[in-house]
Amino acid sequence: MGAPASREPENLSLTLVSAPGSCQVKESFVLMGAAAPTSAIAQASADVQQVVFSYLGDIVLKLVFATAEGMVSSVRMDDLVRMQLTPTKALALAFTNFKHAQGPVDISTMGNAVYSLRSSMQDSCAVNFLDRAYWRTQLTRSEPGVLMAMPRRGCLMFAYANDPQASQEIQRLAQRIYYAADEQGLSAYVYCFTSQGWQIHATLPAPDTAKQGMRSSNKEAKQAVAQELALRQAEDQQQECEEWAAQGQKTVIRCLLVNFLLNVIERSQQMPWWLSIAAAIVVNIFMIAGLVKLCSGLQKTQSQKLIYMVLSFVPLLGVAALVYLSMRASQMLRAAGWSVGLLGAKL
Fold first, then answer.
1. Rounded to whole angstroms, how far apart are CA atoms 227 and 221?
2. Quick one: 111 exposed, middle or buried, by C-beta within 10 A (0-12, 13-18, 19+)?
3. Predicted local confidence at residue 40, as pLDDT
């Protein structure tokens, strides 16, 4: 009997887990399937028969089966035998599948020249640590290298090594987030990527409660995490507003064009009066729906939305109001990096 569809090669993926206390100095994939149960690497997995690699520092790569429905299960050695894959080939295939499922990544600022990666699979964003091609492109901005930290799950931050202030800031932020993350903590190191690959740059020092001025403040650390979460929520809200504005703008522009076409046909008396009225009603319904989305994307109040809805039915003045809203949407979307043409933003 064959394996379930969820345990097939196309569902291979990766996850990063922590092995606290371990420190692999050299960057390499070391299969830990035969690790002793007492080792820190083996303790990162409940079953040493699972396919696990130590990689660098305290980072461990774990092969999993991940489906579009979000179901995740560990890959065992007998799965690789069944799929006729070596551990190395399975690892390469899993990373390819992950990149395909994740799609493009975005960069957002955390302040003081420290940046974070954002993706559609934010909880697994740290897997981008392995994307050497991406980090090579970042070297064009900083020849000395790129500093990167993964203090907790879902957080991958980086800074350019040619900026001393940013180099200190990323270590400060990573230290606060890591020691406030508890079980969600991922790596206690800051890494540096150069033309030679990844290497350990620094260890995140534990808060020193014995020295004056160096006491650990859980409140301060949690505030750093809260600030990051607030920034993430604000970015998600902004992205949602941009999508609403883009969809609403495109709908409004199309409705205006259809309305103009209906007026031309009506004047030529080539359409029955009842069909003309029915078409006008349908167009106006879509117009109102698009207008509401457009106003929501521009963060208009409920009162302002009602005013624009009323104005849309006033000849000339309604067209002017819709053109104004469309121009405001174009400005916002272009500033956010969208491509906007005559028929609206390209979705």
1. 10
2. exposed
3. 44
